[in-house]
């Protein structure tokens, strides 16, 4: 059996999940379901990055004690992910005991091997990005060089623990030259390789006298840098070191936004090399969801557009499925993607309501009305096989190349094709020719079962809704063996959206 391990970044719970964080999580869920459906043994993990100072400060500002606050936020994240049909195998929290133990183990091991050492640090630190900045990067105004942040930096002058990142420059370059497919897309690969070529400097991996976070095991005045702690979640979550599920680790896919690819493609692989562990199989960076004016969406900017929390907690399932579909089909994966409610409505109406939804509704209605709801397989099919095989091939190759928009095109092409067959064959004129009508409707329903199976990774709720209307309880059914199908009931899959009021 093939194994695959799929991860999202662990999110800072200093704010509610928004559409940007939902984007990463929906992609990861799509891939996890896709591989599960293809009989892989999948382990899909997401979770929260709780040891950050930002999280602590947010709790302080809200006058809630931090453990209570992070518990509440973990529940909120889980609730939102559940509503979005995110079917993770594990939700990791960096305050979990097993994770803390692994982080301590890793820190100790790196220290024993000489990859972590103590030295004096003097430099700039951005609390918001949890990032140390070298003097060369910081301009006179002393604000964070991260364009998205630009908050005032603090000067840090303290003895500190350093990770010997410089020792991995050549090894990393060699690895990436030999395994260029590790980083997706190619543009990010180029960015990472040129970043490494510019020279890697050792990085500070502790903070002194910081209240919140995991302490350096042998020097309790210090707290372990949140990124070292956070990145370690990818192995602590699958049991490293004592119960390490290595079969997953050998085929690990990390999915994240482009903003944090350097942590994942430079620091993390170096730590793994220092621990003598395999590097991730894939480091997949998507672009940002932006406002129509191309501003990165965050909680403060444009995050209220969908108001994810309100949307997923209060809207019907077909709209939530619509959002999953929209996030996967829009734009080109890897690039920034402008999103808006208007565009969502357009895509939903034209591709889901008027295409897939309408197809299913027409075919089921005609079968109910003119064939007493039952179709029989009495002869060979005439059109579905060639097209469906091509659709599967196109769908699978685009998913495996992370061209999700193309994958959605394949689904829509198939629905278009079946809708066209209805127009060409005019089943409403065959009411008195039951044999021809039965033949046509069986083939169309067969096509619909096919669509239900194919859309499962993106629209799981709709997939089971279609199969349920046809009395099929098992997604893995082999449709080839069906010789009779009964339409049990008919319910609109995607009611048309008439105005913004239907969405907000
Ligand atoms: N805690 C770190 C990650 C540690 S992973 C070992 C972190 N957390 S975060 O809460 O800031 O989430 C960052 C992730 O959220 C991004 O990498 C990206 O996956 C997602 N996004 C946040 N805003 C986004 C957009 N506007 N668009 C797309 N994705 C966005 O960084």
Short description:
This protein has helices at about 20-35, 55-60, 65-85, 95-110, 170-180, 185-195, 225-230, 235, 245-250, 260-275, 310-315, 315-330, 340-370, 385-400, 405-425, 435-455, 460-470, and strands at about 5-10, 40-50, 90-95, 115-125, 130-135, 155-165, 185, 205, 205-210, 215, 220-225, 250-255, 280-285, 290, 335-340, 375, 485. With about 500 residues, it is an alpha/beta fold. A six-stranded parallel sheet has the order 3-2-1-12-13-7, with helices on both faces. It has a four-stranded antiparallel sheet with strand order 5-4-6-8. It has a three-stranded antiparallel sheet with strand order 9-11-10.
Q: Which range best describes the helical content: under 10%, 10-25%, 25-40%, 40-55%, 55-70% or over 70%?
A: 40-55%
Compute the gyration radius: what is it? 26 Å
Ligand list? 5'-O-[(L-methionyl)-sulphamoyl]adenosine
**Widest beta sheet: strand line-up:** 3-2-1-12-13-7
Properties at a glance:
Isoleucyl-tRNA Synthetase, Domain 1, six-stranded parallel β-sheet, 17 strands, 46% helix, four-stranded antiparallel β-sheet, 504 residues
Please, could you describe this protein's structure?
The structure is a single chain. This protein has 17 helices and 17 strands. The protein has helices at 19-37, 53-61, 66-83, 97-112, 169-178, 186-197, 226-231, 233-236, 246-249, 261-274, 308-314, 317-329, 341-370, 384-400, 404-425, 434-455, 460-469, and strands at 3-11, 41-48, 90-93, 116-126, 131-133, 154-163, 183-184, 203-204, 206-208, 215-216, 219-224, 252-257, 282-286, 289-290, 337-338, 374-376, 484-486. Helix 1 links the parallel strand 1 (3-11) and strand 2. Helix 5 (169-178) runs antiparallel to helix 6, helix 14 (384-400) packs parallel to helix 16 (434-455) and helix 15 packs antiparallel against helix 16. The protein is elongated. 42% of the residues are buried. The model has no long low-confidence stretch (mean pLDDT 94). It binds 5'-O-[(L-methionyl)-sulphamoyl]adenosine. The site of 5'-O-[(L-methionyl)-sulphamoyl]adenosine has 21 residues, from strand 1, helix 1, helix 7 and strand 12.
